[in-house]
Amino acid sequence: MRLWQVFIKSIREQKRDLWVVGLSLAFAPLFVFIYWLMTGGTGTTAYHVLVINQDVPVAVDALKVTAGEDIVTRLQNLKYQNGSPLLKVHLEMDRFRAEQKLRNRNAAALIIIPADFSAKLMAFNDGEVAANAELTFVGDLTNPLYTVADVMVMTVTDTYIQDVTAAPRPVSLVEIPLGGSAARSEFENYVPGLLVLAIILMVFQAAMTPARDIESGVLRRLRLTPLTSFDYLGGISLWLGLVSIIAVVLTFVAAIALGFRSQGVLLPAVVITIITSLSIIGIGLLVACFSKSVSQAFVIANFPLGFLMFLTGAAFPMPRFHLFTVFGHEFALADLLPPTHAVIALNKIFTLGAGWKDIIFETAALILLSLLYFGIGVRLYQKTQMGIVKHLS
Q: What is the spatial distance between Cα 150 and Cα 260, in angstroms, rounded to a whole number?
């Protein structure tokens, strides 16, 4: 009987804090949704491949041989068992523009088919054993998606060549890595994302710090002082920003001690991390808007943490769902989250040796989104949790 009484008491007490039990129950379904996004919504991931087809068709016995077009067609027809495309093939004309897409991780790999590809295959068939065509593969070797896409393209190409020539590969496959990606270790590949992850984890601190003031009654006592909302929120933001910088520095020092090397200068990376911390503080304030206690803030903060960790590429690469194009850059769904741009920018700096001019778009997007999130967080916190706005402002 006492057991039943305790059970009833627990239910009654939980009614006062439905947020915690509700969010606890919703957390696992949230990850189901995140994994659905990670797999493209259909359970399959399509890898974006760029192709520059320079091949010139040749005529053989009144037949037109178009080896370049045939390979492109086979790549486009490569599908999963459920009929979903395995590769999304995009034809390009300009190599510089194509490599920019690789740097921005809007595509996994670039394949360049030479002008004499059909001619060389036909010459080999005619007995010219020395006839050798070259297919060029370009990509960021630190991008795990490149490895998968590269293997699939090579398999399709090998199969086509064997069907045409009935011989084992009379074609040389030339791989050209972007920047210093070929010299990077597996450990170094993860460091840019881990630095951003160090900032993302600050969402707990950013949510729990103001929640602690609410729970302890500090905020009520501040009503009696001439403190302004700018003073209060500005002071908290400065402290959280300092903690974020310390977290990044400690993470970076640990990475250096374990063998990490940067291909680019560090100043742009420092600026990127500082701007990113501003957005995380804003998100933390948004969480605090719906929290009455530290424990409640901790539970709620796990929701944005899940999105920020898994959808931005901080934990591991994500497929990109393109929405529209801005100034030549393809804007994806995950680009609405500021850390996405930070991960791309840091990868360009550390792996590809990029400078300021190479990360202009990422920096601009990061600044705009960070100001937006921070501004919304501050304003909403004033309205919801600082019923003292009249007294503080």
A: 26
Other CB atoms within a 10 A radius of the CB of residue 383 amount to 11
Rg for the chain, CA atoms, rounded: 27
| Residues linked to residue 133 through DSSP beta bridges, in sequence order | 171
For the segment(s) 47-182, the CATH number from 3.20.20.140, 3.40.50.2300, 3.40.50.360, 3.40.1710.10 is: 3.40.1710.10
* 3 state DSSP class of 185: coil
Order of strands across the sheet with 171-177? 87-91, 47-53, 109-113, 133-139, 171-177
Q: How far apart are CA 319 and CA 317, in angstroms?
A: 7
- Gap between the Cα atoms of 247 and 260, Å rounded: 17
pLDDT at 390: 45
Site of tokens 């601190």: 205
Helix, strand, coil tally for the chain in percent (to 5): 65, 10, 25
Q: What size, in residues, is the chain?
A: 393
Is residue 288 within 8 Å of residue 210, measured between CB atoms?
yes
What is the predicted pLDDT for the residue at 391? 44
Report yes or no: 341 and 350 within 8 Å, Cβ to Cβ.
no
pLDDT of residue 203: 92
* 10-residue mean pLDDT series, the chain (393 residues): 70 69 70 67 74 89 84 89 84 91 87 89 74 83 82 84 70 79 75 90 89 79 71 85 90 90 87 93 89 84 87 75 71 86 90 86 92 90 64 43
Contact 191, 255 (CB under 8 A): yes
Nearest to 51 by CA among 100, 103, 104, 107: 107
Please give the C-alpha separations between residue 239 and each of 199, 246, 274, 300, 375, in angstroms, as whole numbers. Answer: 14, 11, 13, 21, 17
Angle of CA points 181, 183, 187, to nearest 5°: 85
Q: With contact defined as beta carbons under 8 Å apart, do 296 and 218 qualify? A: no
Number of other residues whose CB lies within 10 A of the CB of residue 137: 19
Segments of the chain assigned to CATH 3.40.1710.10: 47-182
Q: Give counts: helices (H), strands (E), the chain.
A: 15, 9
Beta bridge partners of 135: 173
